[in-house]
Task: inverse folding
């Protein structure tokens, strides 16, 4: 599977390369979400999930999910996709 | 009592090679230490291929309360036994989605095991570090002793050289005295003859 790379800057303006797993919009709630992971030294990776916000100057920001319910919502989407994949 | 599930549209966005800035302060929302195996590959291909996932109405309403109608809003602050029973029904329905529950349990167990392994490693490393420090101190003390001994040896060597020089001087004196003695003996014997 072809890896899709993204560059993520943290609050200290340090850049990190990450693998983009999924980015999608849920039109019904007008939210965009991003699912990504950082390189791992072993076969276990951590999958990160954030809310994607686009600023007026066309820059993208990753924000935290609001709460446990939103997290469960995203997880459910992901696991449903696994089942269907 | 579980809410009816329906298809919700998901539009994939192409963000490859994008530059993003992280604007988070607390702990990130993560699926920790997910094993990259057959399921994970299915997971990734699923994410790539599928456009829709099954989401229940209640899930959607929790995310966007504006979608909820009057009767459902009551669920947020249950006021009657019926509401509580309804809420319990939804909650048990959620627990019934066991794959998430089981996975969460697995992540908790995995992270606990990882924590224990890390603690073992840490105590091992600190023990090694202490041993290294002890060895360093020991070798420093030994180096100091060797230096002192070397200094004493060089002092003794100098004394030895001086003594050897004196011995050779004395030997010269003795030799010259012996020579004189033998010459006198010779003269004495000559007189007798």
Result:
């Amino acid at each position: 599977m072809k890896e899709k790379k993204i560059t993520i800057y943290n609050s200290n303006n340090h850049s990190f390369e990450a693998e983009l797993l999924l980015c999608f919009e849920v039109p019904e709630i007008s939210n965009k979400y991003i699912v990504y992971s950082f390189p791992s030294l072993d076969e276990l990776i951590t999958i990160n999930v954030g809310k994607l916000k686009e600023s007026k100057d066309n820059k993208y920001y990753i924000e935290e999910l609001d709460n446990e319910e939103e997290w469960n919502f995203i997880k459910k989407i992901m696991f449903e996709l696994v089942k269907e994949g | 009592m579980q809410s009816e599930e329906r298809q919700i549209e998901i539009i994939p966005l192409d963000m490859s090679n994008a530059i993003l800035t992280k604007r988070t302060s607390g702990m990130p929302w993560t699926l920790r230490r997910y094993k990259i195996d057959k399921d994970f590959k299915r997971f990734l291909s699923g994410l790539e291929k599928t456009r829709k996932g099954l989401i229940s109405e209640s899930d959607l309403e929790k995310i966007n309360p504006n979608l909820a109608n009057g009767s459902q809003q009551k669920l947020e602050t249950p006021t009657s036994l019926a509401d509580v029973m309804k809420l319990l029904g939804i909650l048990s329905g959620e627990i019934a989605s066991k794959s998430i529950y089981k996975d969460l349990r697995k992540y908790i167990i995995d992270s606990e095991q990882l924590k224990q392994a890390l603690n073992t490693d840490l105590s091992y490393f600190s023990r090694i570090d202490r041993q290294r420090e002890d060895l360093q101190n020991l070798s420093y003390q030994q180096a100091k002793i060797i230096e002192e001994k070397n200094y004493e040896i060089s002092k003794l060597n100098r004394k030895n050289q001086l003594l050897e020089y004196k011995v050779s001087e004395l030997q010269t004196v003795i030799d010259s005295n012996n020579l004189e003695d033998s010459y006198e003996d010779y003269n004495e014997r000559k007189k007798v003859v």
